[in-house]
Amino acid sequence: MNPSPSRVTPPAHLPRHNGSAALDPTPGRSVDSGLRRNDGGGEASAPVPVLAWIRPRFAALLATAMLAACGGGPPPSGVTTSGHVEADEVRVATKIAGRIASLAVKEGDAITIGAEIARLETIDLELALAAAEADSGRARAELDLLLAGSRAEDVQEAAALLARAEAEAEAARLDLDRQETLLASGSGTSKGRDDARARRDATAASVAAAAERHQRLRSGSRPEEIAAARARVAVAEARAAQVVQQIEDATVLSPTTGRITEKIVEAGEIVPAGAALVVVTDLANPWLTVYVDEPDLDRVQLGQEAEVTTDGGQMRRGRISYIASAAEFTPRNVQTRDERVKLVFKVKVTLPNGDGLFKPGMPAEARLAANPGS
Question: H or E element: which one contains 233?
Answer without folding.
Answer: helix 223-249
